[in-house]
Task: structure prediction
Amino acid sequence: MNISFHKLLPHHTKQYREIRLESLRDFPDNFGSDHAQESAAEKLAFEKHIEQQTQDNFIVGAFDGEALIGICGFARDNNKKGRHRGIIIQMYVKPAYAGKGTGLKLLQATIDEGFEIPGIEQLVLGVITNNSSANKIYERAGFREFGLHKNYFKDGSKYFDQRFMMLDRAESGR
Result:
């Protein structure tokens, strides 16, 4: 298996939409976004960033040949006092590729791209506490917990706790 990792380009927009909606459909408890709401949108928020190739907002893809098999997003904080911070979002790897190191490599490629942006000193993310595989990947990449929000998401009568994690450039060795 020869997996490559790189930022998505405008011609990847359709593949991105398909895999993003797949992640929301097949793993609804792992994401804050809703499949029905997102699939009804003419364009997903990150489709615009992919098309415009913005430096501060991008998706890194994991590719098996030409097939997009994983995504991990980066969004720079827009607040003036938060511009030193980037947010890792939309992490997903197709189940057939899970447990083979693809997720960690995809996350590391996204971290590397994020820290290449001038001024980015810190990366943060949120992860559902019961998503054990995602939590392990984030910990292996060096992220450490800085907070826990009980009942962060609610779907019907079901609540989900969100764990907040961060990685400082200085601590990452980058």
About this structure: Residues 92 and 125 are 14 Å apart (CA to CA). The chain has a mean pLDDT of 94.
